[in-house]
């Protein structure tokens, strides 16, 4: 009998029968509050009726035409719709299927546009699992192990991880900027450097918002040295952080944006956006692929963007994110195993530490497992595996956030065996 690869790791034992909004209904008959959402993919919630209708409609018209051969209307519509949310100046787009592919395409574009070889990435960044994307990823050695030799020309600078360094945010940014400038002197000169590649908030690297001042410093150096600033919005984009794009918490504008995941509520499509001037530096034929810009995925993307706008989901993410973080901080005050709660919008991380402040992956893993028993789906992340991350759908309600926090606390209490401080036994 054939079975799935043993190297695949399923974070929960749940088998889905169907799903709706923030809820997954298992074949075991249980109802799970889904705070994983395919890592931010089901942005408008599971099976939003408008997305379902758009996809169903499209399947009857045309399922696929390679858009480098013949064009179809869903892709033209999606391009128009993206134009309404993309930052000024990023007026040229092309499509692929996954985040990894789009990241690789962005790197290729930056190299072609600058004629320079090197890429600077930031510690804890996650950019995908294909060989080049894994070469750019430093969110855990498990993502690059076994791939060597990795793609050449990738240089890693520190990320301003204030909690880890025991610094306040400002000092962490100063430290990281100083190290970046030092990297220009010690390893990759500015005129050898094609691009910075950074997430607006580290995703798989631990749910750490990138301080706006750090993005501003990258923009300043990008301008000074003609380096392309590539923002990987695959996980943090499309409303998740309470702004449409995660980088919009800072004044820095990217030269290239990469987006995927939430853009089509679960259909595989990714996009790369840049200025026409930058895009025109790509060699003809260097962009495209068999399935990129699939018509059903594009139709789902159009519906997704319309739903996000009509239902005010970016604002919902902001408000529910504040509620979620406040609830988690209250839990933190009752359980000393929680060292840090941080995040932005509906992207919140809970870092577990031992009594002497060391990463505690064992407790994080046990809590993640226990949340499933309490009917809340969560995931871990971080290079040391000691962060539990919560990624609710953008449609999540006030009641669902309260319930999620309640279930999360119950899971922590189950694992620690502790009655929370301040609660009578
Ligand atoms: N970049 C970021 C920021 C991501 O979070 C991910 C996926 N977790 C990727 C790239 C890779 O996307 P995919 O899995 O679709 O290749």
Automatic annotation (TrEMBL):
PROSITE patterns hit by this protein: AA_TRANSFER_CLASS_3
Pathway: Amino-acid degradation; 4-aminobutanoate degradation
Gene Ontology MF annotations: (S)-3-amino-2-methylpropionate transaminase activity; 4-aminobutyrate:2-oxoglutarate transaminase activity; identical protein binding; pyridoxal phosphate binding
Name of one Pfam family that matches: Aminotran_3
SUPFAM superfamilies reported for this sequence: PLP-dependent transferases (SSF53383)
Cofactor(s) needed for function: pyridoxal 5'-phosphate
CDD domains: OAT_like
Enzyme class: transferase
EC number: 2.6.1.19, 2.6.1.22
Cited InterPro entries: Aminotrans_3 (IPR005814), Aminotrans_3_PPA_site (IPR049704), Class-III_PLP-dep_AT (IPR050103), PyrdxlP-dep_Trfase (IPR015424), PyrdxlP-dep_Trfase_major (IPR015421), PyrdxlP-dep_Trfase_small (IPR015422)
Assigned keywords, A-Z: Aminotransferase, Pyridoxal phosphate, Transferase
Keyword Heme among UniProt keywords: no
Enzymatic reactions: (S)-3-amino-2-methylpropanoate + 2-oxoglutarate = 2-methyl-3-oxopropanoate + L-glutamate; 4-aminobutanoate + 2-oxoglutarate = succinate semialdehyde + L-glutamate
Entry similarity comment: Belongs to the class-III pyridoxal-phosphate-dependent aminotransferase family.
Stated name of the protein: (S)-3-amino-2-methylpropionate transaminase
Species in which this protein is naturally found: Rhodococcoides kyotonense
């Amino acid at each position: 009998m054939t079975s799935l690869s043993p190297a695949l790791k399923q974070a929960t034992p749940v088998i889905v029968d169907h799903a709706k909004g923030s809820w997954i209904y298992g074949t075991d008959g249980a109802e799970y509050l889904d705070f994983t959402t395919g890592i931010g993919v089901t942005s408008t919630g599971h099976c939003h009726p408008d997305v379902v209708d758009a996809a169903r409609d499209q399947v009857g018209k045309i399922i696929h035409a390679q858009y480098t051969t013949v064009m179809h209307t869903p892709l033209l519509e999606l391009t128009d719709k993206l134009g309404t949310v993309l930052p000024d100046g990023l007026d040229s787009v092309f499509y692929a299927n996954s985040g990894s592919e789009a990241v690789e395409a962005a790197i290729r574009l930056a190299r072609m546009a600058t004629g320079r070889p090197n890429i600077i990435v930031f510690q804890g960044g996650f950019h995908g699992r294909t060989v080049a994307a894994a070469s750019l990823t430093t969110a855990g050695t498990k993502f690059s192990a076994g791939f060597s030799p990795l793609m050449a020309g990738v240089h890693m600078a520190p990320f301003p991880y204030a909690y880890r360094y025991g610094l306040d945010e400002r000092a962490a940014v100063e430290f990281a900027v100083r190290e970046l400038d030092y990297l220009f002197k010690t390893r990759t000169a500015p005129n050898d450097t094609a691009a910075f590649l950074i997430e607006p908030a580290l995703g798989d690297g631990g749910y750490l918002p990138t301080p706006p001042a750090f993005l501003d410093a990258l923009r300043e150096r990008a301008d000074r040295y003609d380096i392309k600033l590539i923002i990987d919005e695959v996980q943090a984009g499309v409303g998740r952080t309470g702004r449409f794009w995660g980088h919009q918490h800072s004044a820095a504008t990217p030269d290239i944006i990469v987006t995927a995941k939430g853009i089509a509520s679960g259909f595989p499509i990714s996009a790369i956006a840049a200025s026409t001037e930058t895009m025109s530096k790509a060699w003809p034929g260097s962009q495209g692929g068999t399935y990129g810009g699939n018509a059903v995925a594009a139709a789902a993307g159009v519906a997704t963007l319309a739903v996000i706008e009509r239902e005010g989901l970016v604002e919902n993410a902001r408000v529910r994110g504040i509620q979620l973080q406040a609830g988690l901080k209250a839990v933190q005050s009752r359980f000393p195993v929680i060292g840090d709660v941080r995040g932005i919008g509906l992207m919140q991380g809970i870092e577990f530490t031992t009594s002497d402040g060391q990463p505690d992956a064992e407790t994080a893993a046990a809590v993640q497992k226990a949340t499933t028993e309490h009917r809340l789906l969560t995931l871990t992340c971080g290079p040391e595996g000691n962060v539990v991350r919560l990624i609710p759908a953008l449609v999540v309600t006030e009641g669902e956030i309260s319930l999620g926090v309640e279930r999360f606390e119950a899971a922590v209490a189950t694992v620690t065996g502790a009655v929370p401080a301040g609660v009578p036994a």
